[in-house]
Prior knowledge:
The chain has 284 residues and is mostly helical. The chain has a single domain (16-283), classed as Rhodopsin 7-helix transmembrane proteins (Rhopdopsin 7-helix transmembrane proteins, Up-down Bundle). It is built from twelve helices and three strands, in the order αβααβααααβααααα. It has a three-stranded mixed β-sheet. The protein is globular and about 65 Å long. The relative contact order is 0.15.
Amino acid sequence: METSTSVANNFSLQITQFILMGLPGIHSWQHWLSLPLALLYLLALGANSLIMTTIHREPTLHQPMYQFLAILAIIDIGLATTIMPKILAIFWFDDKAIRIPECLVQMYAIHCFYSMESGIFLCMAIDRYVAICHPLQYPSIVTNAFVVKTTGFMVLRNGLLMIPVPVLASQRHYCSRNEIDHCLCSNWGVISLACDDITVNKFYQLFLAWILIGSDMALVFSSYALILRSVLRLSSAEALYKALSTCKPHGLCAQNERAQTGLSEAAWAEKRYVHHITPALGDL
């Protein structure tokens, strides 16, 4: 009888929704950030849309280098739209509740978009490596088909590898505290509320960080190291400047990504767009 009562109590404590408390450490005055964040969100949508429109309408920009920038702009819009509307709903309407299925969908989308950015950065680095280190082979290697295939591979890779993240989180038992000390459903924020063992979740998260994102960034750094070695061999200062200038949009994007890797997803999403879009627009 006692066992039955315990099981019934555990079942009754199974929560069905989480409460997003907002930005960590500033809960008391975070509502003052609603207007700046709304403006940043509109800026992200407008600037990325401008990038895509400019590349689409300008025939001279119909090159793999700028096509990857357009794809990155699409990813930025997707990531911003995944995160910002809920943040603004929390600040404006105190709508902190989010059902578990909705939370898991947001978690999956955030992980997909973030890893897609890493993958596109790698594609951009490969594009510049071939263009500078193997210029004669560039037209035959980096074609429109190359852009389509690499982008499709990244979508498939990240879409499939991210499925276990929400699936594993959904298998955890949430029976007590349901307050997430954040403004979005991050994997760590959700599974830290679980009442049972989360070792598998932690292991898979680390696997993704080191094997997926880590390998992408390692290859990006290697590509640019080879590019730097190649351009330093150029005897002409003008040729050296021209070669390095072709990497400027990609280098700025990668620099922003590295600088913000250690930040939380929300702060990263809120700050990234202005720094990322402005250099890209300057190059267009």
